[in-house]
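thought: fold this chain, then report.
action: predict
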Amino acid sequence: MRQGARKLVLCAAAMVIVAAARQAQAGWIIADSVNASATPAFYDPGSPITMTWAASQVGWFYTPSTSFPLWEVLTKFGVTDHRLVTVDVYQASHGANGTLLSPSAGDVPLRSAQFAPQTDALAGGIFAPLTLTANNTYFIGFENVSGLGLNVTADSGATSLAGGLRFGFSGGGYLPVSVGGFLSQPILQFQYDPPNLPPAAPDAPAVPEPSSIVLFGLGTCVVAGSAAWRRRRSSRTAAAFD
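observation:
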């Protein structure tokens, strides 16, 4: 009898810990979002075919309308695997106006973090707090994305970011080329932990955000077609977008 009561107490304690953890997760504040509730372009869970990135890194310019402390940038890919993706936050002056954005050119990100992407669910990397200033432009980049489903949306009426898509291959930085159309419509969410809470450790894998949160130009060689089968995917030739 005592052993059964002890188990009940331990179970209740575990439930309290889980509830506290969920409450801490809920304490995160969404500072801004871009197409966060949208479905990734060409993603259909009932279809074995999807579109994937051929570029190894992709990114977009972002200008916040208000200032806020940034702790985490999240995105949503159409198809994922077990890899880690790196998210970078740069000053917009690096790579703006058609210049190359590259570590070899001295462009060092303000913040970087790795995370495990999730299929059709928001996930992102957590880093030391960074204050984003209203009306200042930043560049949000994602590395190691080749073969992952697109993290843009083709939804009608979606938000497009000025400057379009920037991309690059094999870690060589972002090319001085801008791609418009739906490829300029990334899925992004920016959030932070309230100042009175300690920084939270990133989940592994990242926990998808609650579903209640509401938040073609030169596309050749940037995205590629692939057959996203449950157990294997076979690459197809690169698709061009006009």
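thought: worth noting. The mean pLDDT is 75.
final: tokens above.
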